[in-house]
Amino acid sequence: MVDAPVEAAEPVTVAYDIPAPGTRVGQLLQALSQQDASFAPQPFLANVRAVFPQVVMAYAEGNRSVLQTYLVPAVYEIFDGAIKARDEAGEKQRTEIKALRSLAIEDVRLNTQNGVSTAAIDVRIVSDQISLVLDREDQPVTGTDAVTEFSDLWTFERVMGGSGDGWRLAAARSA
Hints:
This protein has four helices and five strands. With 175 residues, the protein is of the alpha+beta class. It has a five-stranded mixed sheet with strand order 1-2-3-4-5. A hairpin with a 2-residue loop joins strand 2 and strand 3. Helix 2 packs antiparallel against helix 3. The longest helix is centred in the first third of the chain and has 21 residues. The radius of gyration is 17 Å and the shape is globular. The relative contact order is 0.18.
């Protein structure tokens, strides 16, 4: 549950870090653009910018329908299990995203297996958040009510040339 609406404490410009074309990752981004004419790094990061707070807040609120939209099934099962455990313990998640600082494409993987081509992009997301878990008496179990900088590495994946499936979260971890 969220105790307060999500709002930025101050207007912050989000920095996008896209690897240069001459780098290994930059060359993979170009290869991805050639395989999928609809892909471009800047709009991809703009979509990540929009999806990140939706996923974070959906997890905090236990909104499974939003999570199913943006997560691959295996990751959804992990998030769902964590939400169930939190609910059974009578705990609630309090999360406020105060600012999204930067989004950086860290790596790209293009794979073909059994005739199916997939792409995966690792994005480092730096944000300022308040994040804590409260027990039944609203006492903190983990986290803090102070604004803290979080650095996460999220992997987005999609099947290439498929039925128009979008990018979905395939992994998320602290970085």
